[in-house]
Structures are given as structure tokens and as C-alpha cells.
Amino acid sequence: MNVFSYLIPFVIALGGLIFFHELGHYLVARACGVKVLRFSIGFGPALWSRRFGRDGTEWVLAAVPLGGYVKMVDEREGPVAPEDLARAFNRQPVGKRMLIVVAGPLANLLLAIVLYAALYTVGVREPVARIDPPPESIAAQAGLQPGDRVMAVDGREVLSLPQLRWEVLAAALRRDAATLEVERAGERLTISLPLAGVVVDHGSDDVMVQLGLKPWRPPLEPVVGSVAPGSPAERAGIVPGMRVRAIEGKPIADWRDLVEIVRANPGKTLRFTLEQEGRTLEREVFAESADDGQGGTIGRIGVAVRPVPDEEFLVSVRYPPLQALNLALRQTWEVSAMSLRLFGRMLIGEASLKNLSGPLTIADYAGQTAKMGLEHYLRFVALVSISLGVLNLLPVPILDGGHLLYYSLEAVRGRPLSERAMEIGQQIGLALLMTLMAIALFNDVSRIWSSVSG
């Protein structure tokens, strides 16, 4: 593995996200009349520094690029020249201080919106609007069938699954039924989809679920695409190109059948019936035990399916600027809400702490998405930007959200919290943050060890 192919995309992404975060603090501080002494990307010794602007703000690149900060004039941190007292952060009204604090996380959310909007405007690859309605669903009862491709809703053209979600939500808000044009076996059909009683309070995805407009998944031929070196499959003599006909005598028609059986049998030896160049072969394959990431155990043999050509289920879509902005706002909102829900579930024990990822996993994803192309990489950057913004808004002392909590209490009480109370809060917040970082790093190392040993 070329370390630089992962390190460089990671440093570019992380450095850019830190820069935008701190730029939010900086710009709003300047707009509020606060003097900024230093703008630093990273911590520790300075690798590069220059002074710019009428205030002589020092711009710094430091040795440890895992964060950044904007240092402002503040009487709590040392003596302040008389001419700068009016521009000290601590002398600003509480409303201005709240704006300066919240500006960093909001800058990350704004960056995600801009990236998503740019992608949607320039053009993105999205799943085609092909559906797979369950038998008892509203969609199935209306006459829709698995594999149908929706071409239009109420006369409005639909190219992709996200467009279908949007149009169905809009239709649900407008009337009691929607007219769908679908393509089935080369023919165009018109189907009326009843929408009466559909609840739209929870967003378009929930509407899709209520109607049974489940996304269609392309069939995956049970043909081995790749075999991991040193894996149980390789030791058993399985090679790319082999077709899996049966496992333990059970016919395998789709790759997902194979995955289901292997995952359900950790620690067991399974009898594979395979076909290679017209010959039928039998192989005994041990399904080694692996952590499923949720506290359970699954089987794994180290094979991957032969890729399905993108053209079969993806389509290139471009949106008008206003619609692209709408989609970007909705995407940012949904990812933010999902992040908060996941974090909340981890706090109450309903979701595993193994969901936490640290710098090693993020670097891995950065490298993988960079190899997949600019669109995938920018989507990854937008996702991490949202995560960074949401994390910093949490009401944890030492994070921006913790400071926002302090200032909110000050606004309600009419006076600031005591220095002692804030000091205790900072210590608790630091301990919590260090604990989360340790868990995330442990998860990173565990994933790497699992992949190397497996």
C-alpha cells in the first residue's frame, strides 16, 4: 500500500476543513470588531508564519495538523493595551461572543452545502429510479412491480432515485394521488399511486418507506471477482472467475445468498459447489469468525463479487442551480440529523462505540475516495465537514458547543459563570474528549489488525 496515496488526500481534506472552521471564527470576530492575534492551522511549533493585515494578525502552519485555533485579544489571557480594550473578546456583548463561537461549526456546514450544490449543478452519478416494492405495500397494490423504472411523476421527468424521492414528497404535499409513468419490459405504463393518509412530517425517505418504494438492487451473479491473499477462500483453492452453484447443497442464485450463508456460519466449514470452465468442483471452506462492528460475530471467507457495470444502475444527473441548492440543504440537514441520532444512541448504549472512527480510518476513506474520483472525494469531504460541524456544536465544555452553552447560561442569568465552574467544565470536557479520541483510535487499530490478520 502506498502510504502517500492515503496521507496526501487526508492532509488536504483535514487541512481544508480546519481552515474553513477557523475562518468562520476569524471573519465573524473581525466583523464584530474583535482584534485577532493569531490564526493557526495545527498545534505545536510553527513550521511557517507570516503577519498580514492592519492588525498584524499572525498566520501560522504548525507541526501537528489535527486542529487549529484563532487567538483573540482577551483580558483573561494576559494584559491588554489600553487602545485594544474595546476590541477584547471578553468585553463584547454576549450575543457577539455567541456569534463568534458558533461561526466555526456553521462554516463547516456551509462548506458542505456549497460542495453538495456544486456537485449537483455540475452533475453527479446517482442510482436510477428503479424500484422493488414489497408485495403488501401501497406501491405494489397500486400495480407497481419489482424492476419498474419510474420515468415521471405528475408529468415531471424523473431520472434518478433522489429525484423520485423529491417528486413523491412534493406530490404527497399537493394531493391525494400521484400519476407515475413507469417503464416495464420496454413498455411505458401509467399508474396512479394513492397518497391519502401518507405522513410527510419526517421527510421524503419516510414517505418512500410508507409507500413501499424500496430501491431496486441489481442482481449480483454469484461469480467470484477477487480473493483476499491469505484468506480461507484462497487456502481452499477458490480463484476469481469461479461461479458458486451451491453451499451445503443449497442452490445459490444471487451473490447475496452466499453472503447471507457465510455470515450466518462463523467458525464452521462449509461445502462449496463451484463451476469453472464447465467443470464442477467441490471445496471445503472455513468461515472464520469476524466482528460485525455491533458486538456480534459473523463468518468471513475473503471473497468479493465481480463488479456490476455502473451503467446498469447509475445515471448522470445535473440539476438547475436552485434545485441543486435545495438538494444540498436537505442532504446536509439529513446527514447532520443522522449524526446526532447516532451519537445519542451511543450515549444511551443503543449503538456500539465501535461506530466511532479516528484519523486512521478517515485517512483510509480519504485515500479510497480519492482513487474513485473527484466526485466521491468531494462527497467524502462534505460528509466529514458536516461531522466536524455537528461535533463542535455538542454542548461539551472545550468544544464550541460548550462555550455556546456557557454564554447561553450567561444570557439567561444576566452574569457569567464563575471561573471555577468553567474550569471544572473544561476539565470534564477535556477528559470526555480524550476518552472519545482514545476509543476512536482503538477502533482504528482494531480494524487495521482485523484486516491484516484476516
TrEMBL record:
Top-level taxon of origin: Bacteria
Residues passing through the membrane, by range: 6-28, 99-120, 380-407, 428-449
Entry GO CC: membrane
SMART domains, sorted: PDZ (SM00228)
Domain PDZ intervals: 107-186, 193-278
UniProt keyword list: Hydrolase, Membrane, Metal-binding, Metalloprotease, Protease, Transmembrane, Transmembrane helix, Zinc
EC number(s) per entry: 3.4.24.-
Compartment(s) of residence: Membrane
SUPFAM superfamilies xref list: PDZ domain-like
Broad class of the protein's primary localization: membrane
Signal peptide: none
GO MF annotation, one: metalloendopeptidase activity
One Gene Ontology term from the biological process aspect of the record: proteolysis
Membrane topology of this protein: Multi-pass membrane protein
Enzyme class (EC, first level): hydrolase
Cofactor (UniProt): Zn(2+)
Family membership: Belongs to the peptidase M50B family.
Protein's UniProt name: Zinc metalloprotease
Organism listed in the record: Tepidiphilus thermophilus
Lineage: Bacteria, Pseudomonadati, Pseudomonadota, Hydrogenophilia, Hydrogenophilales
